[in-house]
Amino acid sequence: MSKEIxxxxxxxxxxxxxxxxxxxxNCLRNxxxxxxxxxxxKIVSHDTCKLCNSSDFIFNKxxxxxxxxxxxxxxxxxxxxxxxKQNISFxxxxxxxxxxxxxxxxxxxxEVTRDLARTNTFISQDPEEKRLxxxxxxxxxxxxxxxxxxxxxxFDKIRDEISSVWYNILLIKPEIRGRERLSLLAWSIxxxxxxxxxxxxxxxxxxxxxxxxxxxxxxxxxxxxIFEGTRFEKYISVPIGTETSIDLSxxxxxxxxxxxxxxxxxxxxxxxxxxxxxIVYYLSNKIFKDRKYTSTFLSEKINLSPNVILLEASKIEKxxxxxxxxxTKLTL
Length: 332
What we know:
By secondary structure, the protein is mainly α. It folds into four domains: 1-36; 38-93, N-terminal domain of TfIIb (Single Sheet), CATH 2.20.25; 102-236, Cyclin A, domain 1 (Orthogonal Bundle), CATH 1.10.472; 250-331. It is built from 14 helices and six strands. The chain has helices spanning 3-16, 20-30, 127-146, 152-172, 178-195, 202-209, 213-218, 220-227, 233-236, 250-262, 273-287, 295-302, 306-322, 324-331; strands at 57-60, 63-66, 71-72, 82-83, 102-107, 110-115. Strand 5 (102-107) and strand 6 (110-115) form a beta hairpin. 25% of the residues are buried.
């Protein structure tokens, strides 16, 4: 049918309808030439998820996605929300399970298996695979230095759990760098070991890894953000103890608490490891005078110079020299 005949037929039809404008719009809509304004183009802002009332959201381009149930407030259907929990590659639902060492990745469109316990099989020059290999090798190097302190058979199981924690962190935080990377590496080791009722010392990990204890504690909230609500939550729920990790008597602990209260406007928040150890030294050598905790002993615990601890202790001493009444309370 020629265009001329089609045009004549269309004009004849239009002349007979009561509302030609509406008729033409309907024709164009039926042909798919008019894009309807749908709820997909509307961004609805909510403080809490309408499905589960969680306020934990992640953002992907223009979508706001509930981190708990996977709902998004960018509707693509008639409902106000649609769940994408199983389809979003970066959500917690995509984590490998605790203790998993065989992982599947896509290489050139083909699914291949990699063994976290055998990084020598990571032979690709792909930047992402090289990044994963380097970070996993770093972990294995540290674990090799720790295994002598434990039953090897028990530690092998825990080692797999540690590897799965660290691998998930590397997946969800591909740009992790510097102190945050080293701190989360420390927690990846610490939590599974403590969860399995074995002893590990944060200070020892800090020394081996090459990061300050204070930095490790300052990034602990990241572990909570990553693993809360996942199968790994059982690990991050174990108590982490105090930063000093020294077997302190109740009297020491009560005085440390009092000093922190007195110097709350002078100490860092969160308190730095050197300040914590400066407090212990000050109590031992200036208040209790038992000389139990020397600067050398404390420095070996946290891999800091004894002079750093002495400097922190001198700041505390200067404060109490100016506040004699508060100092007197420490001696009671």
